[in-house]
Amino acid sequence: MKTLVIKNLKKKFGTTWAVRNLNLELEPGEIFVLLGPNGAGKTTTLKLIAGLLHPDEGDVVINGIDTRKNPLEAKSRIGYIPDEPFIYSKLTGREFINFVAGIYNVKHDDYEKKMAELFKRFGVGAWIDGFSEGYSHGMKQKVVMCQLLLHDPQLILIDEPLVGLDPKSSKTVRETFIELKNQGKTLFICTHTLSFAKDIASKIGIINVGEMKFIGNLDELSKISGKRDIEEIYLKLSEESVNETIP
């Protein structure tokens, strides 16, 4: 069964199409990296999949579950991190993670084991018991990475996973994503970090002005664009997309 199926997805804000005619299928064990300039539709696409926005048209199916017909069941299969990691400011990081564990009905024994593993993996220290209002962006990112994996989601959605992380933590995140892929999880990642896409993506998408301009692997992308360097490819396709919109 495919982890994610998107059919003819459309979302409009006023007179502007944020996402238009989006079609995508992802299998278990794939890492899909979506690239695009600011305002291209990356974050809107993630929010539509996560059920935080409702599409004007089209369907999103997660593990065979239609997100319109069974939204709660579909959301239970998802782990999601937005571009700005959110933690309630008057909670400690540990309290926030406890809160998320309760929402997903994570068993106590599973929770204790998982937290010990994740805290060690992401270098979470004594600061986890301080109020999150004093956390740096990187500290918040570590907390939300921990809560992301609590309930063993099949589909993982992440917007800009490396922002605010130091080099060691960035390396840990990359290694974690590869492990999740090898476990059969499906990852959908939006990023501006082209080297990140090159290093870990099974499949790459390039979106601009709300439309998907390419979906495939790096070799396929190179053949189409006539270039090998991912940065040159990205800039070429982005420029072509912009030129198409100029009357």
From TrEMBL:
**Residues in ABC transporter domain copies:** 4-234
Q: Which GO terms describe its molecular function?
A: ATP binding; ATP hydrolysis activity
PROSITE patterns per UniProt: ABC_TRANSPORTER_1, ABC_TRANSPORTER_2
Q: Which domain of life is it from?
A: Bacteria
Which of UniProt's keywords are assigned here? ATP-binding, Nucleotide-binding, Transport
Quote the InterPro entries the UniProt record gives: AAA+_ATPase, ABC_transporter-like_ATP-bd, ABC_transporter-like_CS, ABC_Transporter_VariousFunc, P-loop_NTPase
What protein is this chain from?
A: ABC transporter domain-containing protein
Q: Which organism is it from?
A: candidate division TA06 bacterium DG_78
* High-level lineage: Bacteria, Bacteria division TA06
